[in-house]
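User:
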Amino acid sequence: MDFRLCSGCGAVASAGESACTHCGGAVVAADASAFIGKTFGKYELLDVIGRGGMGVVLKGRHATLDTLVAVKLLLPGLGDPAFAERFRREARLLASLRHPNIVEVHDFDVAPGGLPYYVMEFLHGQSLAEELAAAPRGLGWARVLAITRRVADALEVAHEHGIVHRDLKPENIFIARDGSREHIKLIDFGIARPVDEDDPGASLTRTGHVIGTPRYFAPEQFYGYPVTPATDQYALALVVAEMASGQPLRSAQSMAEVTLDGTGHLADTLALRLPGDTPAAVLAALERALATDPGRR
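Assistant: Predicted structure:
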């Protein structure tokens, strides 16, 4: 992911700017590694640990406490004042979520140049996506259900607080390890939103960027209908099926590709895609969660 930075003061520049609005220095293209060694507020940025369509995550250190944190910087092109305010409000809501299966959000601020960022606990381990990459035939139902229960518990708490995740996928489920202990963590609430927020067409930003991952979208996200807890239920069902079979139910990845393949009716062929030892009750629950109509999930 490329950013535009001032070569003089290091401030983030908006697209199309050739000179820094802060010091007048020249604006140059740079990747996320340009932030290594910089300090945002109390946090020194040490290394890049993740990239995505919405931003970049860096390993950081709290300058006073000398503890490790994860700092997510939001995509500059999306950082208009209204967008930044929405993230500030959401970060405040997410910081109130206290659950062992939800990553802790510690702080939110805006760096010089208007770049919003938020600070989370630093986790050691790997994502569910990485575990699945090493298990192309699936994880086995004991493992699948153990992970599912913890993710469902995390979603239940978020939903009780009026928060819909909107981007549930294997990359956003983290298998954290502390010695011999394992903790399943739901991460990256960067695009979560309150259930009652009036935001028609919430799957797209004003700049046309897709918010979320189309492969795991519920039908209502494709059509710009309101998202609800049922939206996360649909995505969770897709993730559960992928854990069980080792392969995603949708092969397409982009918005256009998934739309061409069809956004609904995955439940109709689900039994053929899952292992033969799938419990009947689990199959029925997944088919219900994959209903096209959110009210039937």
